[in-house]
Amino acid sequence: MAGRPPLNRERDIADLPKGADILQNPRLNKDTAFTERERAALGLRGLLPAHIDSQEEQVERAMENYRAKPNDLEKYIYLTAVHDRNETLFYRILIDHIEEMMPVVYTPTVGLACQRYGHIFRRTRGVFISILDLGKVDSILANWPGEDIRVIVVTDGERILGLGDLGANGMGIPVGKLSLYTACAGIDPARTLPVTLDVGTNRRELLDDPLYLGIHRERCRGEDYDRLVDEFIRAANERYPGVMIQFEDFANINSFRLLERYRDEVCTFNDDIQGTAAVALAGLHAAVRIKGSALKEERILFLGAGGAGVGIGELIVKAMMEEGLDEGDARRRCWFVDSKGLVVKSREKLAPHKIPFAHEIEPARDFAAALERMKPTAIIGVSGMQGSFSEAIVRRMAEGNERPVIFALSNPTSKAECTAEDAYRWTGGRAIFASGSPFDPVEIGGRTLSPGQGNNAYIFPGLGLGVVAAGATRVTDEMFLAAARVLADEAAACGLGEECVYPPLSRIRKVSASIAVAVAQIAYRRGLSTNPQPEDLPSYVAEEMYVPEYRRYV
Fold first, then answer.
1. What is the mean pLDDT of residues 135-145?
2. What is the pTM (predicted TM-score) of this model?
3. Which domain-ending residue is among 102, 134, 166?
4. DSSP secondary structure code for residue 531 in this structure
5. Cβ atoms of residues 361 and 341 within 8 Å
6. Which of these, 296, 520, 522, 535, could form a disulfide with 323 (CB 3.0-4.6 Å)?
7. pLDDT tens digits for range 535-554
């Protein structure tokens, strides 16, 4: 994956598109970086300005234009245009400026881009499979030009970030996720495929919008929905044997059951459930390091009992069991509050995914009441309810804990349970804080406190790289536990002091490579690999990582 293989000059150059056609191919286009010999051989003279740019000069020009845009949505649109025109340059820009651009290519800006998708649409990317395509999915996948697809991200658009049902507009999420697979972990973009299953939408403003690009009908449920998902899974695995499929932003009514349906059958995982769990667990590992305690000693109260929250709880239980607790004791250290109050055994009609965390205790009507009763050491927000960690709640956490752990993980920023500044000021700077979307550093008491961002990009790209490197046939919970431990270790070694919850994004390719090695080792150890095990696995993983460098055509 490191760069692209050199061309066999005499044979391959004859097969390349010429003239304006090569300029329209984002994987081959170099724009003004084509050399004189390439311009002559490829019929480009006169189609480009005379000056031959280096890639560094192109990056400088692009950044000047990017930074001149008036807002983040316009920056997103500009980067999308670069991606559509010159893929190599796009990834060079993204890798070199990952800290600046992560909030634009992904959360929070990607949420706004999805909301506006039909209105800012320029050029299609990825594969759209609609409920009208039942029985035709394989032929649709056959239209995609890539043949060696190793990673697919698929959504049905029903639960986009914390924004809800955006239907086909949700394609921005698979596209954004896959750009991070490449930028953060070096998965060759030619081996990735974004997919949207367009089964309709129940959002009336989209159905009434003439510029909405999905099918204009209410969301399909039941047998036909399941048939479409199953046909897609079968067709994808037949066309791309062993491909890793990441479920993304499916609603709770489908996310858990689809994961359980396919996780032991094909190479798949759900990032909202498992990726979020791993990055949150890594943050908790870092938090107990900062506190000088142990994970098995924590009492954790969740606000929100959907896929993300329960996924985090399940992985925490497994991590606590590794530290010596039995399963029952580990579960009794994780408590959940949903829209009806504390999740308890006496409640009727509990959703199946909540039952393992329904404990024998009297009900509590809301989060504040549950906080008083449970006296947690950590609170984790995955509710999508802005400001739900109120001043009273945060101050109460500070009264009961020397170092209260406060994770406001809902995305995008507008949905965060509290801000970094709120958490730090209401606790006198004692909070160990992390959020799902980025917040700026906070000055308090003469100290600069840098909030951690529990970004799933710390986990899923490296995990994918490890799966691809080993040719893993399954994605297991053990892999996520290992990824969380590696990420926590990288935070401890980040050189930013003992308060570091997550390492800086500037180190994310190193973090991803370390996670990939740990994941691949598990695949080899558990007999889940189809690729031979190399003698030097870290070197092999590093060599597999795509680097956005231009090919020499002549």
1. 97
2. 0.94
3. 102
4. S
5. no
6. 296
7. 999 999 999 999 999 999 98
The total domain count for the chain is 3
Residue type, 397: M
What's the confidence (pLDDT) of residue 10?
45
Q: How many C-beta atoms surround the C-beta of residue 376 within 10 A?
A: 22
* 378 bridge partner residues: 300, 405
Annotated catalytic residue 91: no
Q: Are 323 and 255 contained in the same domain? A: no
What CATH number has the domain bearing residue 85? 1.20.1370.30
Among the listed residues 185, 85, 279, 167, the one whose alpha carbon sits nearest the alpha carbon of residue 509: 185
pLDDT above 60 (res 328) = yes
Query: Which whole number is the average pLDDT over 487-499?
Result: 79
pLDDT of 2? 55
Which pLDDT band holds residue 253 (cuts at 50, 70, 90)?
very high
Kindly state whether residues 289 and 427 are assigned to the same domain: yes
| β-sheet bridge partners, residue 197 | 129
Rounded CA gap, 320 and 324, in Å? 7
* Mean pLDDT of all residues in 437-449: 90
Same domain, 149 and 255: yes
Could you report the per-residue pLDDT of 147-167, keeping only the tens digit for each? 899 999 999 999 998 899 999
Q: Is residue 449 part of a domain?
A: yes
Catalytic residue among 106, 181, 262, 550: 106
d(CA 181, CA 413): 22
Residue 335: enclosing H or E segment and its boundaries? strand 334-338
- Whether the Cβ atoms of residue 91 and residue 548 lie closer than 8 Å to each other: yes
Catalytic residue of the set 177, 291, 354, 415: 177
The residue assigned the tokens 């697809």 is 149
Nearest to 298 by CA among 308, 283, 310, 277: 283
90 and 230 inside one domain: no
Active site residue 106: yes
Domain that holds residue 72: 9-102
Averaged over 202-214, what is the pLDDT?
98
**Residue 168: CB atoms within 10 Å:** 24
Q: State the average pLDDT for the chain.
A: 95
- 206: nearest Cα among 158, 241, 153: 158
Average pLDDT estimate for 356-374 = 95
- Please report the pLDDT score of residue 413 as a whole number: 87
CATH number for the domain spanning 299: value is: 3.40.50.720
Give the Cα separation of 378 and 433 in Å (integer). Answer: 10
Q: Single out the residue in 266, 288, 316 at which a domain terminates.
A: 266
